[in-house]
Amino acid sequence: MGSGRGTGRAAVYSGFAMLTVVASLGTPAVALADAPADPAAGEVLVVGGTGTSMPSERMMHALYEQGIFGDPDPVGVRYPAQLWPFRGKLTLDRSVAIGVANLDSAVADADGPVTVVGLSQGAVVVNYEKRALMAQPDPPADISFVTIGDPTNRDGGLLAKLPHLHIPILDATIPQAPVETPYDTTEIVHEYDGYADFPDHPLNLLADLNALAGVVYLHPNKGGVDLDDPRNVVTTTTNSLGGTTTHIVVPTDELPLTRPLRAIGVPDKAVDALDKPLRKIINTGYDGDRPGRPAPRSGLGSSPAPRAVAPDPDAARATGHSKRRVHP
C-alpha cells in the first residue's frame, strides 16, 4: 500500500513538472525608486532565471529596494539561462554548467564579503556553485546566499521531490537538492508558487491545480516581497557544518487558481468569497505552518523575517547606479 502511494506521488510530481516547465519564468518590469543605501553591505552577485541571461538594472534595483540585499550597485552574472526545447537552444545541464563557471569566476574576482542571489534557474546555478566551492581546497569563508523561487529547495521545491536522474531526450538532469555547507542561505518563496512551494500531499488535486496556476501568476513575480510582513512564515535550521538556512514563505493574498476569474471581470468581492473555502481545502495539501494558519511549534524558530543583508533605513538614499557592471 505504501509503495503504491509513493508511486502515485512520484507520478503526480513528474507529470506536474512536465506541465509547468513551459511556463514563463521571466521577471516583469518594475518601477525604479530610491532605496536606503548600505555601503558596508559588500559585493552582491545576481543570477537571473530562465529567459533572463543578464539581470536588468531595473530588476536588480527592485530587489535592492525590497531589502533583499544592501549593495545599491550589484553585479549581474551573465549565463545562457536557457531550457531547450522550451526556451533557447541549450539544454538545462549545459545552461547551468555555464552559469556555475561564470558565477565561480565572479566569486573569485569579488573583494570582501559576497552575497550571491539566484532566481529560479539562477537558484539552481547557485546551489551547484555551493557544491563547487565545497570541492575547493580553500573555499571562501565570507560568502552568503539568497535564493528566490528555488525549485530545488527542500521545504517545497518541486524538483527536490523528484529523483535525481538524467532525462536523455532532453539532455536534462533533475537538479539535486542543496548540499550542506557552512554558508548561510536565505530562501524566499511565494506561497503557492508551484515550482518553489509545491504541495506536500500531491493527491490533493485542488492544491495541485492551484500550484500550477501559481507557476503562471506567482513564479515570474520576483517583486511583492515584504520581509517585514508579520504573516511571513520563517523557519531557520542549522546543518551539521554550522550553516543556517532561513526559509521564508511570503503570503499570497489571492489564490492563483481563481485569478482567471478576476481577469475576466468577476467582481473581487465574489471571488474573495470563493477563495476563502477553497484556501482551506488547498492548505490541507501542505504540512506545517502556512501564512494565516500557524501550526504547533516544534522547536524551529518562527519570527519576523531577517533581511538577507539588512539595509539601514536611516542611511543616505541611493541616487542611482553609478555604473553598469556585468560579469564576466
Can you describe what's shown?
With 328 residues, this protein is an alpha/beta fold. It has one domain (37-327): Rossmann fold (3-Layer(aba) Sandwich). Helix content is 29%, strand content 14%. It has helices spanning 2-20, 57-65, 92-109, 121-134, 205-217, 259-263, 268-283; strands at residues 43-47, 75-77, 114-119, 143-148, 166-167, 172-173, 185-190, 233-238, 244-250, 326-327. Strands 8-9-7-4-3-1-2-10 form an eight-stranded mixed β-sheet. A hairpin with a 5-residue loop joins strand 8 and strand 9 (244-250). The N and C termini lie far apart (52 Å). The model is unreliable at 22-40, 296-306 and 308-325 (pLDDT under 50).
Overall 3D form: globular
Number of domains: 1
Give the integer mean of the pLDDT values: 82
Cross-sheet strand order for the largest sheet? 8-9-7-4-3-1-2-10
The end-to-end distance, rounded to whole angstroms, is 52 Å
Radius of gyration, CA atoms, in whole angstroms: 19 Å
Residue fraction in strands: 5-15%
User: Segments where pLDDT lies below 50 for 5+ residues?
Assistant: 22-40, 296-306, 308-325
Alpha-beta content class: alpha/beta
Largest sheet: 8 strands, mixed
Topology, number of strands: 10
- Counting DSSP H or I runs of 4 or more residues, the number of helices is 7
Architecture, CATH level 2? 3-Layer(aba) Sandwich
* Named CATH topology: Rossmann fold
Helicity range of the residues?
A: 25-40%
CATH class: Alpha Beta
User: Secondary-structure element sequence?
Assistant: HEHEHEHEEEEHEEHHE
